[in-house]
Amino acid sequence: MGVEALSEILSHFSVVLNSGSVLARVFAWLGVVLIGIVIIYYVTVGLVKLFKAFWRMNVKYLGLVLFMLGIMFIAISLILPPG
Predict the structure, then answer these.
(1) Do 17 and 29 touch, CB atoms closer than 8 A?
(2) What is the pTM of this model?
């Protein structure tokens, strides 16, 4: 269901980005590229901060965090539909 909804949204954006004048398409693609750059920047900064937090964490807390992460992944796998 999630992939189908994402496919519909992306097809809508492809119609919007490929229709209209050349100038409108240039501005639309420029906006998409700028949003992509911002997303990549924040993901990179977040991963660096996460790595630093794990690096400085006590062993006891690291084990607890990894245990909770494992439980979260198991819960997500139970929620997702099969196939």
Answers:
(1) yes
(2) 0.56
Cα distance between residue 11 and residue 6, in whole Å: 8
- With vertex at residue 41, the alpha carbon angle to CA 77 and CA 11, rounded to the nearest 5 degrees, is 60
**pLDDT single digits (tens) 32-66:** 899 999 999 999 999 999 889 888 888 888 888 88
* d(C-alpha 29, C-alpha 54), whole Å: 37
Distance CA 53, CA 71 (A): 20
Main-chain dihedrals φ then ψ at residue 50, nearest 5 degrees: -65, -40
Please, which residues have CB within 8 angstroms of residue 29's CB and are 6 or more apart in sequence?
17
Residue 7 tokens read as: 């496919």
Domain assignments of the chain as residue spans, ordered by start:
2-79
